[in-house]
Write a structure and sequence with these properties.
about 400 residues, alpha/beta, 13 helices
Length: about 400
């Protein structure tokens, strides 16, 4: 990213898929290799690199303090962190920033963004960067970068509350932004892999084939069988969390079995090569015992769980935090372009104003088409990267 005439310009963008088999055996090298390949695909002489920590590995708080001198605010923030961060402060790196200043009961108040990350989480990310021979200049957080992306793409409006939903493969998150200011973040225990697993289980195919079927899916909205509430699911239904492909007769787990490092939740990346990793062999499809179910039918359960997770987050934000209702939802991440996700959220959350993140050249400039074609093809999947780059441009 660069700046042209006061506007941000994406010069180059590249996306590389991390090798799943290598990720299970040597997670650090697998990710480092992907970083190196991405950099080879967009050669630059020198630039500020801004990587990110995963939102589920950091603690984000929004304390409000009486406005005072910088030194006293620093002391007050450490006291607040000791009270609200569930770790010993000696084990974490703390950072904070003033988001807003307002008057309440004739007293100036500060709304502050407080972020804490354990040293081992940062060290795990740094190991990947060092293996890729990359020196970071700033370290961000993926969920927080969504607000920077929204601002740089001119997605935000004063007077409205926007929910930026980031749908990843193994996790998701929602970032509530009110009047253009970050207001609340909540990580959600759901990932798009649940949909891929459901397809593979039902159709007895491997991961890549299931993903291809999901990506190529087209449907008419009236055909979508919205799933019932979680408590109304039949007793014979298998919980989505358990809907993984069972081992085959020869004892080889499928490609869809959770990876060791995903259970370890990033700090585990600092570990050595796993010696007990399961075989990654695929299995042969079983003969069909009846007519194939449609994808909307197969995905009803995982989509219902997704909607339930987000509904709880929205209810907490709008009612328990005494905030106003969300006016608009912007979908980001790799699963954002899957049509059933948007339709399900519209139905379950009762909010029609849901859009897919898609920056245009009215706010964000783009370089040569060939250099940014990956972003043009999958804009919602690049929102975290856009936000991190915009953060880096603000620091230059």
């Amino acid at each position: 990213m660069s700046r042209t005439g006061g506007r941000l310009r994406v010069e180059q963008a590249k996306q590389v898929v991390v090798d799943r088999n290598q990720l299970n055996n040597d997670p650090i090298e697998a990710q480092a290799q992907a970083v190196r390949e991405a950099l080879r695909g967009m050669p630059v002489g020198q630039c500020l690199v801004v990587p990110a920590l995963a939102g589920q590995t950091v603690v984000v708080r929004y304390p409000r303090l009486a406005s005072t001198s910088r030194g006293r605010t620093e002391t007050a923030m450490r006291a607040e962190a000791a009270h609200s961060i569930p770790y010993d402060l000696n084990d974490v790196f703390l950072d904070w920033s003033v988001l807003d200043e307002y008057v309440e009961e004739e007293q100036k108040q500060l709304k502050i963004l407080l972020v804490a990350a354990k040293h081992e989480v940062i060290d795990a990310r740094m190991q990947v960067l060092q293996a890729a021979e990359v020196q970071p200049g700033v370290l961000g957080v993926d969920s927080l970068s969504l607000a920077d992306a929204a601002e740089s793409c001119d997605f935000l409006r004063v007077g409205e509350t926007v929910a930026m939903i980031d749908l990843g493969l193994t996790s998701a998150g929602v970032h509530f932004i009110k009047d253009g200011i970050s207001n609340f973040i909540r990580e959600v225990n759901w990932g798009a892999r649940e949909m891929v697993q459901a397809i593979a289980k039902d159709r007895r195919c491997n991961y890549d084939e299931a993903l291809k079927q999901m990506e190529e899916f087209r449907y008419r909205p009236e055909e979508v069988p919205y799933a019932p509430e979680a408590e109304a699911v039949g007793e014979d239904d298998v919980p989505v969390a358990e809907a993984v492909i069972p081992p085959m007769a020869m004892g080889n787990p499928s490609l869809l079995d959770p990876l060791d490092d995903e259970y370890d939740n990033l700090p585990g990346l600092a570990g050595a090569t796993k010696t007990n990793a399961p075989s990654r062999e695929t299995f042969a499809p079983a003969p069909a015992s009846g007519p194939l179910r449609s994808l909307p039918e197969i995905l009803a359960a995982p989509l219902a769980r997704m909607a339930s997770e987000f509904r709880r987050s929205f209810d907490f934000y709008e009612h328990q935090l005494y905030e106003r209702a969300v006016d608009r939802i912007i979908l980001c991440g790799g699963a954002a372009m899957f049509s059933l996700v948007r339709e399900t959220l519209q139905y379950e959350l009762g909010l029609d104003n849901i859009e897919i993140a898609h920056p245009d050249d009215s706010a964000l400039l783009f370089g040569d088409w060939n250099a940014v074609s990956d972003l043009i093809a999958q804009p919602p999947q690049f929102m975290v990267a856009v936000g991190l780059a915009a953060r880096g441009m603000a620091d230059l």
